[in-house]
Amino acid sequence: MMIDRRLVGTVPESRRHVAAGVACQWVALLANMAMILAFCRLLEALWLGRATAGDLVAAAVAAAASVVVRAACTVGSARASHLSSRAVKARLRHLIYEKLLRLGPGYRERAMTSEVVQVAVEGVDQLETYFGAYLPQLFYALLAPLTLFVALAFVSVPAAVVLLVCVPLIPVSIAAVQTWAKRLLGRYWGQYTELGDTFLENLQGLTTLKIYQADDFKQAEMNEQAEKFRRITMRVLTMQLNSITIMDLVAYGGAAAGMGVALWQLSEGAVGVGRCLAIVLLAAGA
């Protein structure tokens, strides 16, 4: 599942920050599209020998305005991401603390101290990426192709349709990768918490281990567990690299298909140089 409704519902105040981040990215996309279309119009006029001083001024103004808007949107998106992740971490850690207070000293009967610490610290920190980057990018990835389709429909309908058809392949590839990664990440987190439990237990009983001269044995045991954790960490990194490769192939494959249609239409005389260049740049940059 790409969106955990229970998790998002736990921190409802993060929704407006996620929406603000998506809005900033969308406005930046519009500014970039406007700049590309202005320059392509100028280049086509130069190609045909019809360029005027007004065309140069219009392109320069469009470029300057686009840079200012995109810079402001970048700052706004980063701030929204920070506010979203901050709200999530504060809310979840407060809930964990309240849960521990309700359970009292008997919380150890339900969870190890090391596991609670790992969940409250690193586990919550991991959600910063989910709320601050993943969710805004997910909604932006759904909105951007539709915006690109509307813009390109006025330039070349076949190229716009090809790019739009390729869009569903991206979430399909993401879902396939998630199915593969879910089992591996479950094993990774299990070994991580197990290593943390062992480390805390050995640290608390270090004096006893020294007295009975069992510290060397526990050291060897921890070294073995650390090696297992290192191996599964390498497998997780390999999985992440493979998933990025798959999604990049799908994304850039769709863009290449749109560029191919644009070049074919240019060779047939259906579109001019400026429109063809606009399709190529928009397909590559969206």
Care to describe what's here?
This protein is 88% helix and 0% strand. It is mostly helical and 286 residues long.
Quick summary:
By secondary structure, the protein is mostly helical. It has helices at residues 5-10, 14-48, 53-103, 113-153, 157-166, 169-204, 206-211, 215-268, 273-285. The protein contains 9 helices and no strands.
Q: What is the radius of gyration computed over CA atoms, rounded to a whole number of angstroms?
A: 26 Å
Kindly, what is the distance between the CA atoms of the first and last residues, rounded to a whole number of angstroms? 25 Å
Question: Major sheet: size, sense and barrel closure?
Answer: none
Oligomer: single chain
Number of strands: 0
Tell me the number of helical segments per DSSP (H or I, 4 or more residues long): 9
Approximate shape: elongated
What proportion of the residues form beta strands (DSSP E)? under 5%
Secondary-structure-based class equals mainly alpha
Q: How many separate structural domains?
A: 2
What is the residue-mean pLDDT, rounded to a whole number? 83
Helix content: over 70%
| Series of H and E elements | HHHHHHHHH
Provide the low-confidence segments as ranges: none
